[in-house]
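TEACHING EXERCISE
Course module: macromolecular assemblies
Task: Read the component lines below, then compare them to the predicted structure of the full complex.
Student: A.B.
Group: 4
Components provided:
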Amino acid sequence: MNNRAELRSLIETANQTVLKTFQDSRPVWFDVRPAIEALPGMTRDTILHAGPPIEWSRMCEPQRSGVICAALFEGLADSESEAVAKIEAGDICLAPCHEHGAVGGMAGITSASSALAMVRDEASGAVGCSQLYQGPRGQLRSRDDYDREAARQWRWLAEVLGPVLQAAVRASGGIDVKHITAKALQMGDECHNRNSAASALLLMEILPWALRARMDPASLRDSLAYLTGAEQFSLCVSMAAAKATADAASGVPHSTIVTTLSRNGTDFGIRVSGLGDTWFTAPANEVDGLLFSAEWNADDTVPDMGDSAIMETVGLGGHVQAAAPVLQQFVGGSFQRAVQLTEEMRQITVGALQDYRIPNLDFAPAPAATDIRHVVRTGTTPIIDTAIAHRKGGVIGAGQTRAPLDCFKKALRAFFDTYVPATEP
Amino acid sequence: MRDLKTQVDQANEEALRIVLSGRPVLVDVRPAIDVVPGMSRNTILHSAPPIEWRDMCGPHRNGVLGAILWEGLADTPADAEAMIENGDVLIEPCHHHDTVGAGTGITSASTPMLVVENTAHGNRAFSCLSEGGGLELLKWGCYDQKIADHLSWQAEVLGPTLKSAIEAVGGVDVKNIISKAVQMGDECHNRSIAANSLFFREIAVALLDTASDRKTLIDSVTFLTEADQFFLHGIMAAAKSMLNPAAGTEFSTMVTAMARNGVEFGIRVAGLGDTWFTAPANHVEGLFFRSEWGPDDAAPDLGDSSITETIGLGGFIQAAAPSVQSYVGGSMQQAIDNTREMATVCIGANPEFPIPALDFSGAPVGIDIRKVVKTQTAPLIDTAITHRDKGLIGAGQVRTPLACFEQALKAFARQYATS
Amino acid sequence: MNEPKQALLSADLKVINIGLELFADSLAAQAVDVVRVDWKPPLELEPELERILDDLL
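Instructor-supplied answer key:
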């Protein structure tokens, strides 16, 4: 049992290292660039998607239609049937955002020309990227709604908003994302399903620089009009920041801390710091929440989807539920329930983030660094705030879900197999 | 007596209905002389209640002198003082001109004013533009060339720029901003950062569209994005515009104004017309921003900003803004207890300002002088702490004196019990 | 503003990461449109996982 005690000690040390990486992370938004320039390993014929890897045949409908739209948009195919044929032949490569230093909300479809927010963790040097938030008219992932307007919107993000933000962010010398996140937590955001405060703060940080950058006036006005209406805009920046943090925390031998929580609408996948790039998956859960219209029902929804659970991975979103009691309205909850959920997350995390405080809990720090051992032992999985997608694309609701326990069980078994020699009993 | 009780209850319901039905919209920014009723070139307004020049606190005296110099009515402080003593300058409370002023509330003819129209009742109320952050502002009784230049920039550049933007968007719905801000950690008195960001978001595109030139645009945007508490003055004018139509409601014991001049605390009551009921202002407990400052340096409670509590914001909804507890070393539980305590002196709740941490129960609103006296519960006010000479030195909270409520209740009895 | 809860929600409806214009008309129906999908807490842990945890935790 000495070996076991030694292993436990190694795990504790490794987990503290990972926790410290989370705590010390200093994400700064420093650039906006097209995916082909920003992402390692990106190619013209690669299309990235949210969640763990998945074969074309098992992809949920919103991701399939999003991939086809992207293929057409990038000129990789001239028709839907040609796109499908090229995908099936492997001429168009599909890969998870997460494996290319990126994260993507909802379907997460990201192709070569997608404009990406780039955030660097100044403490570790790690960079995370996220596609820019897709505005109200962005229905690219909805097969039925797909039309020229969607392509126009996609092009607009790449050709108008992207360059404006690029100029502003470069002129600013970098926007301190940690500072904005900390302030937003005092303003009712949990930084996943609610981003009203962070988006407003970000706008106020960026605009003076955008004005000084002498942009084309029409592009500037268009971008400003968009940003003043986009209450979720900051999420893409927050996600890129979280990705940088999580990647910095990856690959620490012996650590049982989760460094990826992600979903593709079919599977939920996690990665664990001490287990490298291996994904551990289980069927994604449905999302408990509110649909925005009576025209939809549970049959219209896809299971949990998107890389946005990177927020919970680093201790925000569902973990700081108590900071955003407004969101309880999506799930018929209460302030007390929100408080309980945050306290529950403390049971499966190994520490807390001193820079991210929850005013409603007397400024208690956010619980962070989810330990697969605690998850399996308690049966409590991370709670995830998230949107609800329609099977044919588009967001139709919002609410909460849980990560499936099976991912954590598989990871724990793999951890045992990796770190406990087979010869031992 | 039973009939009178019923009459009072009904009058209070009516007074509160008038307040809650208000729809304050920020419609304009104009110099005080153009819009404030009864304003003249040689009038200086200050935070209420009324007070004689010789009795004024330091920040008020210094602020009045500063405003006289800024307006060019006098060249030196000594000349300014002589003018006051000769009666060549009129000194009156903001509240007597449908105006509210934070801190010293110093408002003069050229001061750029936020014009808030209560579109449900057709009345207007006013508050000066915030000078932004900083410990040394005219708002806190400070005056020097730098402050004068900034005031002039606000009057000549920022005011007209805001006016154009506000007109371009067809007015800004202040109630909607307050409602959202209360969901975002503002109690809208000591903290209005969310309201400020929401206001900025509403006018940002219009600023770009209407600003006269590039420098004006950059300077104005830079100021507005850095002035965290800028919109407090808009909220105050909105509160005043909502409360004014309820003033004069016969038989009502609802408070329609609470204000402090650094010497006295005063209230007005709906059923008692324009009469101020006053008592010595209390000292504010809280956090001093520098270690060299302490309670001995502070002026008593000062400013019209307690109009926010009068409308059920600020100290009445601390549960919505736990961050503000950091000034007083409080806790979330204390904030919740304080909000619940304020509900015991109020006529009703405001469903348009729901408090998330109280599962969206409405903010307590409509202070009933009967309940204050009966429970001996003094309303709680979040507020700044001003140095007794001049300057902002801290922030915290303070209770109103009870004596002014007791006087008002006696006056109410004299007026109505025998009728 | 007449229905503050709706006003709140309408702000939150933009929550979302992609997509759809939100339909003001549909907001009125929201209160009855709650879709609940229960997740169930796990039951007993398999002995193998218990053993692993005893070693690692």
